[in-house]
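Quick one, T. Sequence first:
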Amino acid sequence: MYQGFINAAAFAGASIIQVRGTTWPPAELDRGIDDTTAMFGLERSLEGSTTYRDCFRNTDARRTRIIPMFVLTQAFTGIPFIAGVWHAFLHALKHQGAVSGGNHHQCPRPRRIDGSVPAGWHDRTAPAPPLFTGSISCGLCMLLFAIVGAAKPNSIAAANILAACARVYLFAYGATIAGTIWSFRRPRITPWKGLTTCFSMRIAQALFIFRVVGYPLSNVIIASCSMLLLKYFRPTSFHEKIQTLRLHRPNLTW
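Structure tokens:
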């Protein structure tokens, strides 16, 4: 599309054929390139006639609110979680480069609320099985996604398979890998404190999205119910199991 915009229609057509295949009629490809070029020209003319104040007026104001919303939610669910797991893991290994002090980013589970409920119960086990299971599940989803996307890029069945892979990936990541942050935390951080922080950020994020773009209120209700469920049915943490074993078997070698 960019090549068509800079008056390189031949290169644009060749690029589209590589993506969509050779089954598309040439006339339809040319018409699509012409329409895209005209659209880009119209957008540039409109951008030149507006000011920054117009970003906060009428329908553009809603788009302006959506942009920081996506930036903030991505920061809440992606990078801080990975950084939190890494720092907590180094601290658990007594690594000299680990950051001392703090909670090591008690972050919300990524993306989908359906993975947060099983993620809260990882304190019952050691962190290795969830990490292994989540890595295998997410890896298979990405592999199947790549195979189907390359083999049948334009079929409805492939689109359904890709959507299913994305849903399974998000659930598996939230239910396995995202839950291991509780097993890596420092012993002085109680499970309820960590879970409260997690779901409080999740509910605040859901309410913010609901306010800006009409996010489904059912997800906010589910997040609230999940937090109450984990409050009254808190599992025994992995660190508490270790402390119990040390109390009853002081001569056990670790």
